[in-house]
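Thread: Modeling a multi-component assembly for a lab meeting

Hi all, long-time lurker, first post. My supervisor asked me to bring a structural picture of a complex we are working on to next week's group meeting, and I have zero experience with this. I have the sequence lines for every component (904 residues in total). Could someone generate the structure of the whole assembly? Inputs are pasted exactly as I received them:
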Amino acid sequence: MWVYVLRRVLSSIPTLFGVALLVFILFHVMGGDPVYQMVGKHASAQQIADLRHEYGLDQPKTTQFLRYLQQVVTFDFGRSYATRQPIRQMILNGIGPSLTLAIPAFILTTVLSVLISLVVVYFRGRWPDRLGVVLCVLGMSVPMLAYILLGQYLFGYKLGWFPISGFDAGWPQRLGYVALPALIWVAVATGYDVRFYRTALIEELGNDYVRTARAKGLGEPGIFLKHVLKNGMIPVLTNVVIQIPLLILGSFLLERFFGIPGLGSMMIDALHGSDFPVIRTMTTLGAILMIIGNLATDVLYTVFDPRVRLS
Amino acid sequence: MVCGSISLTRTVIGLLIAFSIQGCVKSAPETAQVLHLAHPEKVKGLDPIYSDDIYVADEASRVYETLFQYHYLKRPYTLIPNLAEAMPEISKDGRIYTIRLKKAVLFQDDKCFKATSRKGRELTADDVIYSLKRLVDPKLHSTGAWLLNGRVEGVSEWHQAAKDSEVTDYTKEIAGLKALDRYTIQIRLLKRSASFLYSLAMPFTGVVAPEAVAYYGKDFSNHAVGTGPFRLTEFSQNRQVWVRNPTFRTEKYPSEGEPGDREAGLLQDAGKTLPLIDKLVVDVYEEWQPLWLNFLSGKLDRTFIPKDSFSQTITAGKELSPELTAKGIRLHRFPLLDIVHLTLNMADPLLGKNKYLRQALSLAWDADRYNSIFWNGRSIPAQGPIPPGLAGFDMEYRNPYRQFNIKKAKELLAKAGFPEGNGLPPLIYNATADSSSRQATEYTVQMFKQIGVKVKVETYSWPEFQTLIRNRKGQIWSYAWNADYPDSENFLQLFYSKNASPGPNDSNYSNPAYDDLYERAITLPAGPARIALYQQMVRMIAEDCPWIVQVHRMGFHLTSPGFGNYKPSAFYHADAKYYRFDPAAQVGSAGKN
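Re: Modeling a multi-component assembly
Sure thing. I ran the full set together rather than chain by chain. Output:
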C-alpha cells in the first residue's frame, strides 16, 4: 500500500505543476498589473516602477514562475498585496473560524444524510420515500443565498433565536455565532447527500447477496444495517472523505454573509481586491487538498471493501 | 443505533440554539456608553501611512493624531490645531511653516516603551519628523508619499538615498523637515502651496512612536500605539474594539458651530472633556442585509442606505419613512465632496483630437435621468469638476455642454465630421465587470445611440481596467474622485498635464494655458483672486470637455436613537471622540422590535 501511496504522491506532482502554471498564466500573464491596486490614486510612474521592482514584477515571467514554484514547495507564499501580512499567517488565522463552522455542519449533514437515506430506502416506493425525495429536491433547488436571507431575517431578526451575524473568537461563544450558518449548510447539503446515498443504497439492495440474505430468512433491518449499509459505504465514503480536506477552505457565501473571518471570506476578499498572491495560494492549496482527499478515499476503500486492492 | 443517532442530532441542535441564545443575551442593550459602528469592507491594518484606504484611515485616526484637524461642527471645513499648540507661523513667502506642539501629550502605555517601563512617554518634535519620514520611506511604499514628495525641500534627495541603501537611515536629515527644539518643528516647502496645511490634517500624517515601529516590526500594522482618544483592545480585520484612552490629553467638545447646530442638539456637550463614549466597537459587514437587520435591531448605531433599499427607507420628499421615524431613527444628509464622471481619453487619437465630438457626446448624455435611475435622485447633477461646498464652486454657472440637448449634440457631431454618426467608428467603452458598472454602461450606450454614435463595450477585471487606463489605452470610462482635502485644487489638479497617467489626470488632458492658471492658483492664498482662477479653469475644462461630468453624490446616513452629536462630514476620520451614546434612548425604540 505504501508503494501505491508513494506512486500517487509522485504522480500528483505534474498535476500540481499544471495547476500552478494555469494559475500563474491566469493572474500574471492575462490579468492586469496588480501594482496599480497598491500604489494609491496619486502614484507617480517612479513609485509604480519601484513597487514593481520590489515585488519582482519587473522580472521575466519565467523567473517569476520559478519563484512562485519555490513558494509552493516551501509553503512560504509571501505577503498579501492588500494587507501586507504574511499569507501563511492569514491562513492560520482563518482556519479556526472556517473549521468552527465547517466541522459541526459537515458532521451533522453526514449523519443526517445517512440516516435519512436509510429511512427512505427502507420505505422505498412508499410515502416516506416520496416525501424524502420531494424535500431533497426542494432543498437542492433553493439557492443557499435564499436560505441565508430568510434565516437571518426570520431566526436572527424576527425571532431572535440566533445572532444575525458576527463572530466571537472565544469559546464557547463562537458556537452561538456559527449555529445559524451551520444549520443553513445542513439544510442545503443534506438534499444533495441524501439523493446520492439513496441511489447508492438502492443499487446495493438490488445485489444478489441481499436476495441470498432474504432467502436465508434475515429480517429487513438486519439486512439493512449489517449488509447493505456496510457495502453501500463505499460511495458514501468517497463523498465524505473527498470533502474533508476541502472543509479547511471554508464556505464563501456563509462566511461572508455571517461575518465569519474564515478562509472562504478571505478568498472572496482576495477576489474582490485582486489580491493575486492570496488567490493563487488558496487555489494551489485547494488543489493539494483535493489530491489528498482523493488519495485518502482510495486508501480507505481497502478498509471498507477487502476486494479492493491497491496496486 | 438509529435512535441513538437521532438523539445525538437533537442534542447537537439543542446545544447550538442554546449557545445562540446565550450569544444573544450577551449582546443585549448595554448600559455603558458603547457605540457600535460598521465598515462595509475589512480593515487591512492600522498603519497610518496606508490611509489611502478609507477604512484604514478611519481606524488609524482613532489612535494616531495629526498636527491639525477639522473643526467638528463648522462648515466650510476649517482647520484648527490638534497636536499643534496653535496654527502655524508661515513665512512671508509662504514656504516656511513653524509649528509648535502641545506639551505633555503622552503616547499610550505599551510594552514597546521599555525605557519607561511600559509607560507611554511624551510626544516630541522628533516623533513628528520620524512619522513624516516614514511617509516618504521608499521601502514602505506609503500611498501618501505624494503629500511631501516634490513639495518639501530635501525629500527627493532623502528618498533617493534611502532607495540606494540597504536600510533606510532615519537619522539622516531632510533639509525641509527639522525639529527646532523638543516642541517645535519647521517645514520648508519648495514653493508656496495653499493646500499644504491640509496635508497635516490627513490621517497619513498621524504621529507614530518609533519604539512601537521597532518593537512590532512587520506586525506594526496590527497594533496601535498613538496619542489619540482611544486605545485599541481588540484588532482583527473583521472587528476593532476601542476603549477610552486614560492618558489622553484634555480636549474639550467645541462650544460653537454653524447656524442650526444648537437647535440640532449638537452643542449640548459644549466644553465637556473628550472622548464622550467609553467604548467603540467596529464590526465589518460586507453584505447589506446583516448590516441593516443589525441596525434595525439596535445592535448597530449608524448605517448608510444602499440604492436598492432607498425607496423603502426614504420617502418621495427625501425624508425618512414614518416607520423608521417612529423608532427614533434619525436621517443625516450631507454632500460627499466628490465628482462622478465619464472620462474621454485625450491621448486617444480620435477623441483627443476632436473637441466637437467630445462636446456632442457630453450634450447627448442626460444627467437628470441618470441621477434618477442610478442614484434615486439624491445626487446633484454636476456642471463642472468642483463639488458644491468648496470655494470655487459657482452655483450660477451652467456648463454649455452639460445640458441634455440632442439637437445641439447632433449639430456638433456633424461639425465634428460625423453627421448622424456616419463615418464614426464605434467608440470603445471600457467598463469593469460588476453589475452596477454594466448597468451604467448600458445607459451610456443608449444615450450616445440617440445621436447615431455606436459604442462597443469592453469589460475588464479591476486590475486590467487599472492597467488599461494608467497606460493611457482606454477610450471612454466611468470614474469618480473623492476630495482628499477641502480645496478645489484637489479636483483641478486632475487636469494638470504633469499629473497625466499613471498619475491622477486620467483623461491625460494637456493644455499649457490651463497648466499656467493652475500653477498660479496653487501658490495664491485663499481668497477672491484664487477663486477667480479656479472658475476660469472650470470654464476651460467645460469648453475642452475631457470629462462628461455626471453627478456630485450626497451621503444619506441613519443613526440609532441613542447616537448623539452626529454631524456627518466628508473628512470624518477622527470624529468618534465627539460622539455621544445614550443607552436609555436606545432601549425602547430601535433596540426593541
